[in-house]
Amino acid sequence: MDLEAILTEMEDLIYNSSRVLWSGKIIMDSDELARIMDSLREAIPKEVQKANNLLEDQKNIRDAARSEANSIIAQANADAKEIIEQAREEANKMISSEEIVKQANAESEEILEEANNRAEVIRVSSEEYSQQLIDESKKFAGEVFDYLEKNLGDTLYSIQEQRNNFLEEKEALEEKENEE
Predict the structure, then answer these.
(1) What tens digit of pLDDT does each residue of 87-119 get?
(2) 17 near 27, Cβ under 8 Å?
(3) What's the Cα-to-Cα distance from 176 to each of 157, 163, 166, 172, 179, rounded to whole Å?
(4) Does the pTM of the predicted model rise above 0.70?
C-alpha cells in the first residue's frame, strides 16, 4: 500500500472513531491503529526509497544532461575553432590572392610603362632617322640637280657651239657653192 492510501486510512479511523464528550478526545481501536502504523512503517522506507530513487534518477538525468551539454559545448567549441581556422586560412588565401593581384598589377604597370618608354624611344629614333633620310635625300637630289644642271649646261653649251659651228660651216659651204 502506498503512503497516501495509508494516511487516508488513518484519517478515516480518526474521523470515524467514537468521541468522548466534553474532552475533545476520541476512542480508537488500538489494533486497527497498530496495523495502520505497521503499514506506515513499511511504506515510509519504500516511499523514501522511491523518493531517493527519483532523486537519483533526477540526478542521473541532470548529470547526463550536463554531460551531454558539456559534450555539445565542447563539440561546438571544436567546430567554432575549426570554422575560425578555416576562415583564417580563407582570409590568408584571399589576402595572398589580393597581394598576387596587386603584384601582377604593379608588374603590368611596369611593363606598360617600359613598353611606352620603348615606343617613345623608337618613335623619336624613327623621326630622327626619317629626318636624316629626308635631309640626305634633299642633299643627294641637290647634288644630282647640280650635276645635271652643270652637265646639261655643258652639254647645251656644247650643242650650241656645235650648232653654231655647223651653221658657220653650212654658211661657208653655201657661200662656196654660190661662188662656184
Answers:
(1) 988 888 877 777 877 888 889 899 999 999 999
(2) yes
(3) 28, 19, 15, 6, 5
(4) no
